TrEMBL record:
Residues 1-28 form the signal peptide. The keyword Methyltransferase does not apply. Pfam families: AP_endonuc_2 (PF01261). The lineage of its organism: Bacteria, Pseudomonadati, Bacteroidota, Sphingobacteriia, Sphingobacteriales. Residues 65-273 form the Xylose isomerase-like TIM barrel domain. This is Xylose isomerase-like TIM barrel domain-containing protein. It comes from the Bacteria. Keywords: Signal. InterPro entries: IolE/XylAMocC-like (IPR050312), Xyl_isomerase-like_sf (IPR036237), Xyl_isomerase-like_TIM-brl (IPR013022).
């Protein structure tokens, strides 16, 4: 008959084996995560701008983002929530609507990190946008504000601890050139920076690498695209790494700058069936990193 001491030693040995096995499983799971999402090691959060799926509801967009192998979303104003709700993704979203959005995100394991491209008519409305973003734990608001609004937007950034990233649409939009963005954020909150849309720079005939270098230290978000042509407003999206962007060169510059933040896939082509285009692009992006 075993003594109490022998039983105790056996129990300790069994527990040690159990915890060792758990540790080994966790290590394997962590390695698998790193292999599947190599961008995470760099502090990059690869996701999608929900506008990519603008023909569908936010709930449907989350399903497509999940199917594309992505875990982050940049919500855009005006998209119908879906899942039984006809409300829109704006600051006017009801308490029930916000609860539904949070549930949809949680159920899919997707995090909403950014919101945009959004605008507002005055300081009071901008504050409602910030309050809405804070409620959804949004980290970055992407926008193209009127320059007369920049001073109070700067104050709202600090009040709510939310970054504002000024987005560039193609020339002749106001912020098409990074020099204009730099001037706009000069002397204002350090939470104000740029939402760098590399595809729109290409449409404007600007070198994305040179633009990123100008904005070094103030790039807070990236809209990622690869286009079939350079310098043409008629250029359209193609699978990343197959167009004129220079995928690895852009990755290298973001690495050099030690960029941390969300990279939104914004695939504005093949609108009705572009989920697989996003999936292939994300796969190409990760393969290029490896």
């Amino acid at each position: 008959m075993k003594s109490f001491k022998q039983h105790l030693l056996a129990a300790v040995a069994t527990a040690a084996l159990f915890f060792s096995a758990c540790s080994s499983q966790n290590h394997v799971a962590q390695n698998a995560k790193t292999a599947d999402f190599p961008e995470e090691k760099l502090g990059w959060h690869l996701g999608a701008q929900a506008y990519t799926f603008r023909l569908f509801s936010f709930a449907d967009a989350l399903n497509k983002i999940d199917s594309a192998g992505l875990r982050y979303v940049e919500a855009f104003p005006g998209q119908t929530i879906g899942a039984g709700s006809q409300e829109k993704m704006t600051y006017e979203l009801s308490t029930e609507g916000r609860a539904l959005v949070k549930k949809l995100l949680k159920d899919k394991g997707i995090t909403a990190l950014a919101y945009g491209v959004v605008g507002a008519k005055d300081e009071a409305e901008w504050e409602k946008v910030f309050q809405f973003a804070k409620d959804l734990n949004i980290q970055v608001i992407n926008c193209e504000p009127n320059e007369t609004q920049l001073d109070y937007i700067s104050k709202l950034c600090d009040k709510y601890d939310i970054k504002v990233a000024i987005h560039n649409h193609p020339n002749p939009s106001h912020y098409w050139n990074p020099d204009v963005v730099l001037k706009a954020i000069e002397g204002r909150s350090k939470r104000m920076g740029a939402a760098a849309d590399v595809g729109h720079w290409m449409r404007s005939g600007l070198d994305p690498i040179a633009c990123l270098k100008k904005l070094e230290g103030r790039v807070y978000h990236v809209h990622f695209k690869d286009l079939n042509e350079f310098g043409s407003k008629n250029a359209h999206d193609v699978h990343w790494g197959t167009g004129k962007l220079g995928l690895q060169a852009v990755q290298a510059e973001l690495k050099r700058q030690k960029f941390k933040g969300m990279i939104s896939a914004e695939y504005e082509y093949n609108w009705k069936n572009n989920m697989n285009d996003v999936k292939v692009s994300a796969s190409n992006f990760r393969a290029a990193l490896k």
